[in-house]
């Protein structure tokens, strides 16, 4: 004991004596403090967190109770409104039934049989009117469909004829035999009798075969259908030139050039006009 006090500083002795600790006890206390691994205030923090969690849970329970109460009140109000609306509706229906019954009595319908008969008459008349209306609409619709079907069939027929005529024209253009050309033009005219172009080209083929009178007749037929068709005048002029009817030929040449000016380039190349090359009027037309 004497050696311990001897090694302790004199300034520390009063403090140790004030605490009531011996130097050995003080050293042990300091050693325990040094050996501590965690702060001593950690339990206080954990207690604070637990208290806060408890407070939050209590607030949530209070909020849930408050909203449950509000929802319950809202549902009760909605139910009350629905009951009131239903009650008012039922009352209105009863009022309407009562008023209707009163009106029926006033107008003299004293029995349910009269009411039934009257209702049946009204329903039958209404049904008849509706039936007649829809029958008329159905009839109109059937007529429209029939007309549309006929139109479609006619269009298909026209398309078929047009395709056939187109094929016949291609055959005629490729054919070199004029007698066969005439037959092809006849097939075209069987499908389209008023085709002035086919009539004029048939007249041209007949001229090549030497049948001038038939060619003139066909040209007249074409001009009756279309008096403005210049090529018909041209073919008739060729026929007149071949029969040496020069005045008629020159007149038709002028008409042909009026309606088809592009034929002027063919004047000197047309073999049928060979007899007109020495004609002054013809040369004036060529040089005009």
TrEMBL record:
Q: Where on the tree of life does the source sit, at the highest rank? A: Bacteria
Q: Where are the transmembrane segments?
A: 93-112
Question: Which keywords annotate this record?
Answer: Coiled coil, Membrane, Repeat, TPR repeat, Transmembrane, Transmembrane helix
The reply to whether Transmembrane helix figures as a keyword in the UniProt entry is yes
The reply to whether Cell division figures as a keyword in the UniProt entry is no
- For region Disordered, the annotated ranges are 1-30
In this chain, composition skew of type Polar residues spans: 1-10
Coiled coil ranges: 50-77, 124-158
Q: What is this protein called?
A: Tetratricopeptide domain protein
Give the organism, scientific name: Pseudoalteromonas ruthenica
């Amino acid at each position: 004991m004497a050696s311990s006090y001897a090694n302790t500083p004199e300034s520390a002795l009063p403090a140790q004596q004030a605490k009531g600790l011996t130097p050995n006890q003080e050293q042990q206390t300091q050693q325990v403090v040094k050996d501590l691994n965690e702060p001593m205030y950690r339990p206080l923090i954990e207690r604070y967190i637990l208290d806060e969690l408890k407070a939050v849970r209590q607030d949530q329970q209070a909020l849930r109770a408050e909203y449950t109460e509000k929802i319950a009140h809202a549902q009760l109000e909605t139910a009350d409104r629905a009951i009131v609306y239903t009650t008012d509706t039922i009352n209105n229906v009863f009022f309407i039934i009562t008023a209707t019954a009163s009106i029926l009595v006033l107008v003299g319908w004293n029995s349910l049989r009269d009411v039934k008969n009257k209702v049946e008459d009204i329903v039958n008349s209404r049904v008849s009117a509706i039936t007649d209306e829809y029958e008329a609409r159905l009839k109109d619709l059937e007529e429209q469909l029939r007309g549309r079907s006929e139109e479609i069939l006619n269009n298909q027929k026209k398309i078929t004829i047009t395709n056939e005529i187109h094929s016949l024209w291609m055959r005629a253009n490729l054919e070199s035999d004029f007698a066969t050309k005439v037959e092809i033009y006849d097939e075209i005219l069987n499908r389209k009798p008023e085709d002035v172009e086919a009539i004029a080209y048939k007249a041209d083929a007949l001229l090549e075969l030497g049948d001038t009178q038939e060619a003139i007749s066909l040209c007249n037929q074409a001009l009756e259908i279309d008096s403005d068709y210049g090529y018909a005048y041209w073919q008739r002029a060729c026929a007149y030139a071949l029969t040496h009817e020069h005045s008629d030929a020159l007149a038709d040449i002028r008409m042909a050039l009026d309606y088809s000016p592009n034929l002027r380039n063919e004047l000197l190349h047309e073999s049928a006009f060979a007899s007109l090359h020495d004609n002054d009027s013809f040369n004036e037309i060529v040089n005009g």
